[in-house]
From TrEMBL:
Residues 8-123 form the Amidohydrolase-related domain. The keyword Cytoplasm does not apply. Pfam families: Amidohydro_2. GO terms for molecular function: hydrolase activity. The keyword Transcription does not apply. Keywords: Hydrolase. This is Amidohydrolase 2.
């Protein structure tokens, strides 16, 4: 999904992965941009419903994450941070991270989103 001119979002609807999530329960599915700009509620629904579906926050201005995802604390256990770098509008990864850390999200949930969850999703030693 994208908000940039010329982007086509027709196939970005998160519900299109529902059957894949059902048929392949061991396949991790990452919903990039968390469904922004059109389908954030669907993305959150799927992440809460399926153990193998994750939200990813790239493409969302970090200082506006809670505006787009006011229920983020409820799905923090299924969310990973992303910068969207080198995408348009991302000038500085460190600034994006600092803006995210400045949000009024409890430190334990920020740690989950920034550290714990990425290691679960992308383990250093994948299971056999």
């Amino acid at each position: 999904t994208s908000v940039f001119p010329g982007a086509v979002s027709r196939f970005g609807e998160p519900l299109l992965i529902e059957e894949v999530a059902l048929d392949f329960p061991r396949l991790p599915i990452v919903l990039a941009h968390g469904g922004r700009p059109l389908w954030m509620d669907q993305a959150i629904f799927l992440a809460r419903r399926f153990p193998n579906v994750w939200l990813e926050l790239s493409g969302v201005p970090p200082n506006r994450v809670l505006e787009y995802f006011p229920d983020l604390p409820k799905v923090a256990a299924k969310t990973v941070f992303g910068t969207d770098w080198p995408g348009p509008g991302v000038r500085d990864i460190a600034a994006n991270l600092a803006a995210f850390r400045a949000l009024p999200i409890p430190a334990d949930l920020q740690s989950q989103i920034l550290e714990t969850n990425p290691l679960k999703l992308f383990p250093r030693h994948p299971p056999n």
